[in-house]
Amino acid sequence: HTVFIPVEADGAETRVAASPDTVKRLKGLGLEVVVEKGAGLKSRITDGEYEKAGATIGSADDAGKADVVLKVRRPQAAEQKAYKSGALVIATMDPFGHEDDVKSMAEAGLSAFAMEFMPRITRAQVMDVLSSQANLAGYQAVIDAAAEFDRAMPMMMTAAGTVPAAKVFVMGAGVAGLQAIATAKRLGAAVTATDVRPAAKEQVASLGGKFIAVEDDEFKAAETAGGYAKEMSKEYQAKQAALVADHIAKQDIVITTALIPGRPAPRLISADMVKSMKPGSVIVDLAVERGGNVEGAKAGEVVDVDGVRIVGHLNMPGRISASASLLYAKNLYAFLETMVNKETGEVSVNPEDELVKATLLTHGGSVVHPAFAPKEE
Ligand code: NAD
């Protein structure tokens, strides 16, 4: 069986779905690997490195021969048509709001897997693209903030005077937020953080951050069984806003990472709060692709509001592509490995497997995922 790794059709995507390491591993499973010419260049992986790992360098025409296509983003209509019917396509599919694309993948006979639906269970940790990419995004958010900030992050006591430590506030202490806290601490900032899940409190403290939150009864019940946040009530949001309003006015850097699965990102920072900050302050909105946590943040732009810069870069993991691709490639490899027969090198989909059940969008010509399948009459 043949695995194909294309150049991403979205020119802004800098990541790639295989690394020399995963190519070697795929070969080890008995699979043939074809990498489209130049697929790794934006992640600093040359064709020669893929070849050395055992891949053949091919062209877009090879897509039609592949049994498995590994991608970063959902294939567009033209790509879907180029793949052979029955092929497995494994990518981040971002399917909500793109139901037509899901349908056309079914019509093309593809078995399309959405990696972002991987259950967060121990067995699947190595396949968790949300975590591997959010971790890097959290790091990169602090690096981007530091680059926009006109002052130093650590306290510096020098003969010429003392530079105070930057005050960094991280809103949303999940995977990205915790890495942002750790990164800001390493740079010497004074770090505070907030979240609506009680479990976050200890994690923030263990990284040396100070936890700030409205800890009422709603807070105590805000974590779902899956470990995610619930959408909070209007009343809670008002209490939270009042609590953080004073705090934000005193911060140099605010990093927001708050998301709620299947919902728009919660609005945490109002235009008034932005105005309350000192000129020279920086806000990085990591949720900008999902509607944004910050009023006035613009996707793909750095906005200046009276001297406060709001950073809304898209595809944060793609800004650190060489690292992001290595981890992403490993996530995909680990999942594909579960579908390969080690003796024969055959790839097959077991719809009863819990990882397959959670991620498989289309199969056998139909949309099969419960979130998208046509409801039964
Ligand atoms: P996420 O990306 O969905 O959200 C980011 C953070 O924003 C979360 O911590 C969330 O609680 C927070 N948030 C939501 N609404 C908020 C609001 N109004 N105000 C402030 N914060 C708000 O979450 P995530 O980073 O994917 O992680 C969610 C949880 O899953 C974490 O506890 C994480 O440790 C856990 N997790 C478990 C596994 C595993 O067991 N395999 C893997 C990854 C993550």
From TrEMBL:
Coiled coil: none annotated. InterPro entries: Ala_DH/PNT_CS2, AlaDH/PNT_N, AlaDH/PNT_NAD(H)-bd, NAD(P)-bd_dom_sf. Residues 4-137 form the Alanine dehydrogenase/pyridine nucleotide transhydrogenase N-terminal domain. Keywords: NAD, NADP, Nucleotide-binding, Translocase. Belongs to the AlaDH/PNT family. Transmembrane segments: none annotated. PROSITE patterns: ALADH_PNT_2. One of its GO terms (molecular function) is oxidoreductase activity. It catalyses: NAD(+) + NADPH + H(+)(in) = NADH + NADP(+) + H(+)(out). PANTHER family: NAD(P) TRANSHYDROGENASE, PROTON-TRANSLOCATING NAD(P)(+) TRANSHYDROGENASE. It comes from the Bacteria. The transhydrogenation between NADH and NADP is coupled to respiration and ATP hydrolysis and functions as a proton pump across the membrane. It holds the Pfam family AlaDh_PNT_C. Residues 146-312 form the Alanine dehydrogenase/pyridine nucleotide transhydrogenase NAD(H)-binding domain. It is an enzyme of class 7 (translocase). One of its GO terms (biological process) is NADPH regeneration. This is NAD(P) transhydrogenase subunit alpha part 1. It comes from Zhengella mangrovi. Its EC number is 7.1.1.1.
